[in-house]
Amino acid sequence: MNIIVTSIFVQDQDKALEFYTEKLGFVKKHDIPMGKFRWIALVSPNNPEGTELLLEPNDHPAAKEYQEKIFDDGIPATMFGVEDIHKEYKRLLENGVKFTMEPTKAGDVTIAVLDDTTGNLIQIMQK
C-alpha cells in the first residue's frame, strides 16, 4: 500500500496554488473544477509521479476550526523534507516566505517552520 494523495486545508485555493508553486516550487499536476471549488493537486518537481499534495478548501466548519486551532497552537499542518535546510531556508527567505522558526537542530534532524499565507504552518526538515 502506498500513499498517493495527502491533503492540506487552505483558506483560498488560488492564493495557495500561487504560494506552493511560485514560492515553494511545487508543480501543478491536476486542476479540475469541482463545483465551486477545484481538485488542485501538486507534486514535487523531483518526483512528478510521487505523492500528490491536494489543496483542500477549508469550507467545512470542522476543517476551518481544526486549521485555526493547530495554527494558533503553533502546530505545523504537514512536513516537507529538504536536502539542505540552510540553503532552502535562504532561498525561501529570498522568495519572501515568512518563517516562525529558523533552522533548529532537534535530535538527529534540523527543522524550520514557515507560514504558507493560507492558514497553515509548514515544517521543513533535513535528516
Write a structural description:
Pfam families: Glyoxalase. This is VOC family protein. InterPro entries: Glyas_Bleomycin-R_OHBP_Dase (IPR029068), Glyas_Fos-R_dOase_dom (IPR004360), VOC_core (IPR037523). The chain is an alpha/beta fold and 127 residues long. The protein folds into two domains: 1-58, 2,3-Dihydroxybiphenyl 1,2-Dioxygenase, domain 1 (Roll), CATH 3.10.180.10; 72-127, 2,3-Dihydroxybiphenyl 1,2-Dioxygenase, domain 1. Helices cover 26% and strands 42% of the residues. The protein contains three helices and eight strands. It has helices at 13-23, 61-72, 85-94; strands at 5-10, 27-34, 37-43, 52-57, 78-81, 98-106, 109-115, 121-126. The strands form two sheets. The protein has a four-stranded mixed β-sheet. Strands 5-8-7-6 form a four-stranded mixed β-sheet. The relative contact order is 0.20. The mean pLDDT is 97.
